[in-house]
Amino acid sequence: MTAGYRGRFAPSPTGPLHFGSLAAAVASYLDARHHDGIWLVRMEDLDVPRSMPGAADDILQTLSEFGLSSDEPVMYQSQRTSAYEMALQQLKEMNAAYLCACTRREILDSALHGIEGPVYPGTCRNGIFSGREGKAWRVKTNDEAVVFEDRLQGRISQHIESEIGDFVVRRADQLFAYQLAVVVDDAAQQITHVVRGADLLYSTPRQMHLQRLLGLATPNYMHLPVAVNGKGEKLSKQTLARPAEQSPDTMFKVLLFLRQQPPDDLRSASIDEMLAWAKENWQPEKLAGFKQFAA
Ligand code: GLU
User: In CATH, which of 3.20.20.100, 3.40.50.620, 3.40.50.300, 3.30.160.100 is domain 6-79+186-294?
Assistant: First the structure.
């Protein structure tokens, strides 16, 4: 029992829920329930151009068919613009954010390659060259190590300025960036435990940087192995992952994927019985150190 545990699953509605996302949903749900905690669903439908019409409802429907429903009303990022605006305003007032006029091409040409593509070289940090118009907002970073202890991946340390660079919090198309939105919403929903895919492991220091600037609490993090296909690519809409088929067999496969070693006689159980077993026997440490598994 962890007092006040609040966890969440935060899908982006870019397509139907596939096996990898279902596994992440189940893991976050089991971790919350194992700790007698609250489990929430947040729809990360901020990136309207990438969202697929109908996908949000479809994901919620699939989750509920697998016995997973949010304990509180689902939060939609598309309705949270004013909260993100306030956070950006706070950063501006602290002189921690600045307008950037660089194009993708310019950044590519002038940047060193970092862990997630080009490291922004800080071109606009001290002002925009005259005649240029800044549309995106970046947050200033520094080169102090941001360190956290991930429950599965161990100690992670990142020097954001040299490994990522000042990063975008509001895009040139005026959409708020994932990094800002996730921090504002995890705080608004008072999330104490984040359980999500290891593809986001190296985003966490950026989120912690924003939490510190905005005076928000840092949740506890656990980054799960992501499901990859035979080519080692993360299952996603881009890799044409199939929607998760609603059946006890799929749930059993999720528990196998999560290395929970479900007993064989659970194979013939209902989805609810499987979840009840898995909640009691939840052992996330079986996933320690793994960043991906073949699905
Ligand atoms: N919406 C993100 C995704 O689907 C997950 C964000 C998070 O869990 O922090 O990849």
Answer: 3.40.50.620
